[in-house]
Amino acid sequence: MDDKNLIKGIKNKDEKYLIEFINLYGPILKGVIVKTIGNRRNILDEILNDALLGIWDNINSYDPTRSSFKNWCAGVAKYKAIDAIRKEAKHDCLDLDDVSGFIYDKNLENYDESEKILEILSKKDREIFKKLFIEGYSYDDLEKITKIPKDRLYNKVSRAKKTLRSKL
């Protein structure tokens, strides 16, 4: 099947053409995604599904005068992979199990040790870290409380986690 018929079938939302598209272009999309995400194989299927859905939903934005259909599809897959990496990095959390003895409970004997660990951070970062990971506030709540934009909060928490990891 040639690309023109495939594109026409996808534009008409004919699932038969989607299956044919997956058979023809699936390996190409998967290759582009794997090359982009590296060793993050746990998110491969999700990105591939997002790319297929993105192509299915946005087929009308394909312009044959700008690129070949194969290159356009590869570009969609690549940008979906980049978005997934950004999303994963944004929500990368410190696994408290990785930090031995890190329990923040004033009723337990490890309270002093927890306080010492958090003293590594600046006072402001320590308060943000406590509110987020210990008291259970969301980033939206913290944005309102601290008057710091959410994107800056993500950066501050990310730097705080890196500091904790490097010092511990």
TrEMBL record:
Any GO BP: DNA-templated transcription initiation
Keywords per UniProt: DNA-binding, Sigma factor, Transcription, Transcription regulation
One GO MF term: sigma factor activity
Domain RNA polymerase sigma factor 70 region 4 type: 116-164
InterPro entries assigned to the protein according to its UniProt record, in alphabetical order: RNA_pol_sigma-70-like, RNA_pol_sigma-70_dom, RNA_pol_sigma70_r2, RNA_pol_sigma70_r4_t2, RNA_pol_sigma_r2, RNA_pol_sigma_r3/r4-like, WH-like_DNA-bd_sf
Domain of life per record: Bacteria
The RNA polymerase sigma-70 region domain, residue ranges: 23-90
Record has DNA-binding as a keyword: yes
Keyword set includes Disulfide bond: no
Alphabetized Pfam families for the sequence: Sigma70_r2 (PF04542), Sigma70_r4_2 (PF08281)
Gene3D superfamilies, alphabetized: 1.10.1740.10, Winged helix-like DNA-binding domain superfamily/Winged helix DNA-binding domain (1.10.10.10)
Record-linked SUPFAM superfamilies: Sigma2 domain of RNA polymerase sigma factors (SSF88946), Sigma3 and sigma4 domains of RNA polymerase sigma factors (SSF88659)
The family this protein is said to belong to: Belongs to the sigma-70 factor family. ECF subfamily.
NCBIfam families attached to this UniProt entry: sigma70-ECF
PANTHER family, per database record: RNA POLYMERASE ECF-TYPE SIGMA FACTO (PTHR43133), RNA POLYMERASE SIGMA FACTOR HI_1459-RELATED (PTHR43133:SF8)
Name this polypeptide is given: Sigma-70 region 2
Provenance organism: Anaerococcus vaginalis ATCC 51170
